[in-house]
Amino acid sequence: MAALVPRGVRVADVGTGDARLPLRLRAGGRAAWCVASERSPQRTAAARRRLPAGGESGVELRTGDGLAPFGAEDRIDVLILAGMGARKMIRILEAGSPARLGLRRLVLQPQCEADRLRRWLAGHGYRIVAERLVVERRRPYVVLAAEAARPGMLPGAARQASGPSTGL
User: Which of 27, 50, 100, 143 is the most buried (most CB within 10 A)?
Assistant: First the structure.
């Protein structure tokens, strides 16, 4: 997943787990800054224990559901959603309005139903710009990078402008 994050960007990782990916992105110079979230204070506290002492990691942790912990003032370039099913990713994107955050790229690693996620992306003004197949614990997963289909177009506008998507 880290390979699909452009260098020097600001990253948000929803459902970060142990914050391993944001820490890796910072340590490898991929991300200039990362903000990571978990839904519960307990899971956020567990992730916080992985951060180096002194707050020098360049990773900020927040508690909240979906995209709610993030705002336009965070200037996030890349949103990461990983380790969840496509339906949950779609719910997060629909409820959270990625356009309000000014995102340039989505990096998505669905645990299942990647085809459903592809159709949703296409129907909401995104195009897949990169794709990787990864194997973790002997199970294959797809990792997608998606961006607005046309430069300057706000994701979600395609569906509003052209009606419902017919799928792929």
Answer: 143
Q: Residue 36's beta-bridge partner residues?
A: 13, 61
Its pTM stands at: 0.87
Q: Is residue 168 part of a domain?
A: no
The residue type of 142 is: V
E strand or H helix at 129: strand 126-136
Asked whether the beta carbons of 6 and 28 are under 8 A apart, the reply is: no
Cα gap 155→153, rounded to integer Å: 6
Query: Is 44 inside any structural domain?
Result: yes
Q: Residue 32: inside a domain, yes or no? A: yes
- CA 60 from chain center: how many Å? 15
Contact 33, 10 (CB under 8 A): yes
Beta strands 59-63 and 105-110 are unpaired
Among candidates 31, 35, 33, 36, which has minimal Cα distance to 6? 31
Those residues with Cβ within 8 angstroms of residue 44's Cβ, 6 or more apart along the chain or in another chain: 37, 38, 61, 62, 63
Domain span including residue 107: 2-162
Query: Does residue 53 lie within any of the structural domains?
Result: yes
pLDDT in tens, 42-96: 999 999 998 887 667 899 999 999 999 999 999 999 999 999 999 999 999 999 8
